[in-house]
């Protein structure tokens, strides 16, 4: 039936050129399906390696696809690049290079799919990392953009506790900013970013409500924020939870 319909559509073509045309269509269709399947396969492998803590293997897998147009692949590559930069075995120069690479991958993911919450999240994280290499003026200047992308990520996925935690960290950092940095910020910007410990606390609690006990660092910062607010009873409660948290990662041990 397919051939009959095809012959009806292509009666003006010569037999040879018609068959080549139909074969090309079939092969092209198969290639598109195969490419789609391959992306899903790579993502599945990547998520397995990420869950297993195989940072270097994960980076090697994903960097092969750095020219991909798939936002899901690209934000994972940004995360893998950043994770590789965080390893103690990575040299200072490599850390810098990987930080800028990660930002480029996250930016490309965002360009490919503005509605991808993880692309916004990792763009904000990577932009913050790059600020560490470019000085206080750039870091403060980027702060508004960073918060906007975190907020956009939460709009797209209100159930991602990690992003909510990261806005809490943003608020805590600016609430804790030393007086001399505030003075520099006020000189450089008409309205520098500001926040309060109460605002930070609200986000840390929101993260716990979305996903209780999801992250040792959120427990730690709940305790630290209550200390800043001089509520030692609540600080002790959350710091005790952080202390008792099962240490699965290096970060958990540091907490």
Automatic annotation (TrEMBL):
> Where does the protein principally reside?
cytoplasm
Keyword Repeat appears in the UniProt entry: yes
Which superkingdom does the taxonomy of this entry point to? Eukaryota
One MF term in the entry's GO annotations: microtubule binding
List localization entries.
Answer: Cytoplasm, Cytoskeleton
Keyword annotations of the record: Cytoplasm, Cytoskeleton, Repeat, TPR repeat
UniProt protein name: Regulator of microtubule dynamics protein 1
Q: Give the organism the record lists.
A: Aptenodytes patagonicus (King penguin)
Gene that specifies this protein: RMDN1
């Amino acid at each position: 039936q397919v051939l009959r319909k095809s012959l009806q559509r292509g009666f003006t073509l010569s037999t040879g050129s018609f068959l080549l045309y139909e074969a090309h269509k079939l092969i092209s269709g198969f290639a598109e399906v195969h490419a789609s399947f391959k992306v899903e396969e790579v993502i599945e492998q990547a998520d397995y390696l990420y869950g297993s803590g195989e940072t270097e293997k994960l980076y090697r897998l994903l960097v092969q696809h750095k020219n991909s147009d798939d936002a899901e692949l690209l934000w994972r590559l940004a995360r893998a690049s950043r994770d590789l930069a965080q390893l103690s075995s990575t040299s200072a120069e490599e850390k810098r290079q990987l930080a800028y690479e990660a930002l480029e991958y996250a930016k490309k993911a965002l360009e490919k799919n503005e509605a991808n919450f993880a692309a916004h999240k990792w763009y904000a994280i990577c932009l913050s990392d790059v600020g560490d290499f470019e000085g206080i003026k750039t870091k403060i200047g980027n702060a508004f953009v960073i918060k906007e992308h975190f907020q956009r990520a939460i709009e797209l996925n209100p159930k991602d506790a990690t992003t909510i935690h990261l806005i809490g960290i943003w608020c805590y950092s600016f609430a804790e900013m030393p007086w001399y940095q505030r003075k520099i910020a006020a000189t450089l910007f008409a309205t520098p970013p500001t926040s309060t410990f109460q605002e930070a606390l609200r986000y840390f609690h929101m993260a716990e409500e979305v996903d209780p006990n999801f992250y040792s660092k959120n427990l730690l910062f709940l305790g630290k924020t209550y200390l800043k607010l001089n509520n030692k009873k609540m600080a002790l409660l959350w710091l005790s939870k952080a202390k008792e948290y099962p240490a699965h990662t290096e970060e958990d041990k540091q907490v």
